[in-house]
């Protein structure tokens, strides 16, 4: 009977149309982002991130030859068209400045500690550009809050040298703030971390005051609380700026389109099987032996 292949054939047509519609629908929805979701910028950013990681490893091992090679590669990438496609110009300027500092340090035959800091800053900045939602610099929130906790404990010492001990402990917090500065500038711009830097500067100024007074102690306590607020505010995810999606591959799987596609294949097989049976036995009656 014709129903053996007509019904699967109709289902196959419907499934094929549905599958094509689902695919075209996705393409239409993504059409505004085709220019920024191209593979070329993503590959360039990936190479930049890999070069920054290699530069950091060279700094850790004091491999000057590899470091010089990687920093030159990095400088060529920075001077290209990549920085006009993603990230903030302040971040690119910070990377470029650190790269020049590394090259000058390597040329002057100084120790590895002279360019490890800059290499770490570059690595964090490129990582923030490639993985904005899971960047390494975000882990510094707990580190910096721990730094501040040690500062507060040092300040509350009963030995009479609390201000001196707190000021010495502030160096760690300041160092960590400087390390993530290019990463913040790359994602948000330089003004995002301005409040924290100002709070660190002001707190250091209060702690360095040689003349101790009850008013100065109150101001220091207030400044430490404000510093805690500034750290939390800087890492506040709710205020995160939008980042160009070209730095991450787009997930393109669509369960509906796959359902239609598999349904069309199954219906096609059933249609072909029914048609062959109909051709061999069009009236559904077996021939007599």
Automatic annotation (TrEMBL):
It comes from the Bacteria. InterPro entries: Spore_YpjB. Pfam families: Spore_YpjB. This is Sporulation protein YpjB. It comes from Paenibacillus prosopidis. The lineage of its organism: Bacteria, Bacillati, Bacillota, Bacilli, Bacillales.
């Amino acid at each position: 009977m014709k129903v053996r292949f007509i019904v699967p054939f109709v289902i196959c047509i419907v499934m094929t149309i549905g599958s094509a519609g689902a695919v075209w629908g996705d393409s239409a929805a993504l059409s505004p982002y085709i220019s920024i979701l191209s593979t070329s910028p993503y590959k360039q950013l990936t190479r930049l991130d890999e070069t920054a990681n290699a530069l950091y490893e060279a700094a850790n091992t004091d491999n000057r030859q590899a470091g010089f090679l990687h920093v030159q590669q990095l400088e060529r990438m920075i001077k290209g068209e990549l920085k006009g496609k993603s990230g903030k110009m302040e971040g690119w300027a910070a990377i470029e400045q650190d790269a020049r500092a590394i090259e000058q340090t390597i040329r002057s035959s100084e120790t590895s500690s002279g360019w490890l800091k800059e290499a770490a800053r570059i690595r964090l900045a490129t990582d923030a550009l490639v993985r904005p939602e899971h960047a390494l610099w975000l882990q510094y929130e707990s580190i910096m809050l721990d730094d501040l906790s040690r500062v507060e404990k040092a300040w509350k010492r009963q030995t009479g040298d609390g201000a001196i001990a707190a000021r010495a402990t502030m160096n760690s917090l300041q160092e960590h703030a400087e390390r993530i500065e290019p990463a913040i500038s790359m994602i948000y711009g330089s003004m995002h971390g301005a409040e924290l830097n100002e709070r660190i500067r002001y707190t250091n100024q209060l702690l360095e005051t040689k003349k101790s007074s009850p008013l100065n102690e109150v101001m220091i306590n207030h400044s430490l609380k404000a510093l805690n607020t500034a750290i939390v505010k800087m890492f506040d995810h709710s205020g995160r700026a939008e980042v160009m999606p070209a730095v991450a591959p787009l997930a393109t799987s669509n369960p509906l389109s796959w359902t239609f596609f598999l349904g069309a294949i199954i219906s096609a097989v059933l249609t072909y099987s029914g048609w062959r049976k109909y051709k061999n036995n069009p009236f559904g009656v077996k021939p007599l032996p």
